[in-house]
Write a structure and sequence with these properties.
This protein is α/β, with parallel strands linked by helices. The protein has helices at residues 13-26, 36-45, 62-75, 88-98, 134-146, 160-172, 178-187, and strands spanning 2-6, 30-33, 50-56, 80-85, 119-121, 128-129, 151-155. A 7-stranded parallel sheet has the order 5-4-3-2-1-7-6. The longest helix has 14 residues, at 13-26.
């Protein structure tokens, strides 16, 4: 399972950018933001983290969603993801356009850089609120991973280094040797 960080609740664009850049350095899979402008700015300051943007299909036409995500996909060098809230038709319409299909006579030009840009309904990207208590959060992450989830966006109250060291690695494998993270804490304690 991949772990992404939901920063939509964090106040201040500068703070959200700091968190996104730190998530990038620490190897988290994605960062979820509300603003396409903010995601475009993050595309220039990050290298690896995927940039997920939340859209509301009730207020944004699916073609506009697809166009904006395609542009972000080029800016980010194939790291764009779309999270669309609203009716299934809007999600499906945007998904088909971003997969290169001609929908109702509309084709994206230029198409996104990725062969297919992931588009998820908002329900599939609903963030999980973690407590910052590693023992209880390990149980939460293990349960999500073992349930077959392929990705999860989390809201994390603590240091991102702790999330990356103790939970992100655990999310990737059911056989994660906790002793490795504990030993890393002894060698290089987290502040």
């Amino acid at each position: 399972m991949r772990v992404g960080l939901d920063v939509r609740h964090v106040s201040g664009a500068d703070r959200r950018a700091e968190l996104a850049e730190e998530a990038d350095r620490l190897g988290l899979w994605a960062v979820l933001v509300d603003s396409r402008i903010e995601a475009a700015a993050l595309a220039t300051t990050t290298e690896h983290v995927h940039l997920a943007v939340a859209f509301d299909a009730a207020t944004t036409h699916p073609v506009a969603i697809a166009e904006q995500v395609a542009i972000l996909d080029h800016l980010s060098r194939r790291r764009a993801l779309a999270v669309v809230d609203g009716a299934g038709a809007g999600v499906d319409h945007a998904r088909r356009l971003l997969a290169g299909e001609i929908v109702d006579g509309v084709a994206l030009a230029p198409p996104p850089a990725q062969t297919v840009v992931p588009v998820w309904p908002a329900s599939a990207a609903e963030p999980v609120e973690l407590s910052g208590d590693l023992d209880s959060d390990r149980v939460t992450i293990d349960g999500l991973r073992d349930s077959g989830r392929t990705h999860v966006f989390v809201r994390w109250p603590g240091a991102l280094a702790a999330l990356a060291r103790h939970l992100e690695t655990r999310a990737r494998t059911p056989d994660f040797p906790q002793i490795v993270a504990d030993l890393a804490d002894r060698i290089e304690p987290l502040d």
